[in-house]
Amino acid sequence: SQGTTNLLNAARKCNRERSGTGVVGNEGMGVTAPATYSETLHRVIIAVRCAVYKRPFNMVADPPYIHELQLLLPNIRVPAPITVQRDVERLYEGTASLVTAYFKVRQFP
User: Fold this and answer.
1) Residue ranges per structural domain of the chain
2) Digits of tens for pLDDT over the chain (109 positions)?
3) pLDDT of residue 23
4) Are 98 and 9 in contact (CB under 8 A)?
5) d(CA 100, CA 97)
C-alpha cells in the first residue's frame, strides 16, 4: 500500500542520513542514533520495539514514558497507540513477502 511505501521510504531515507555519523545508538535494536531527531524514525523504532519485543501499543500513552521523551525533546509529538498499531501493520505488510521469500530459499535440516 502507499502508506507502507511511504513509511519504508522514510525509514530508508533516515538510514541514509544517519549513516556515518559515528554516534553510538541502541545496539540491541541494531540501530545507531541519528544526528537529529526524526519523527518518522522515532515511529519506526517504536513499531519495531512493539513487534520484536512484544510490547503493547499503548505503552506510548504511559505518563512516565511521555515524561522521559519530553526530558529529551520538550516539544516532542508522541504517537497515539492506534498510530503505533497501524505502523506495525504497515511494517508487516511491507516485509511479509521478503520474509516469505527468505525462508523459501533457506535450507533447513
Assistant:
1) 2-103
2) 566 777 777 777 777 776 644 333 444 455 566 668 899 999 999 999 999 999 999 999 999 999 999 999 999 999 999 999 999 999 999 888 888 888 888 876 6
3) 38
4) no
5) 5
Q: Which 8-state DSSP code applies to residue 27?
A: G
CB 45 within 8 A of CB 31: yes
Question: 19: which DSSP letter?
Answer: T
pTM score, whole prediction: 0.63
CA distance to 9, 21, 43, 62, per residue, from 25 (Å) = 21, 11, 16, 23
**Residue-wise DSSP of 39-89:** HHHHHHHHHHHHHHHT--GGGGG-HHHHHHHHHH-TT--PPPHHHHHHHHH
Q: Residue 90 CB: number of other CB atoms within 10 A? A: 20
Cell 525462508 identifies what position?
Answer: 103
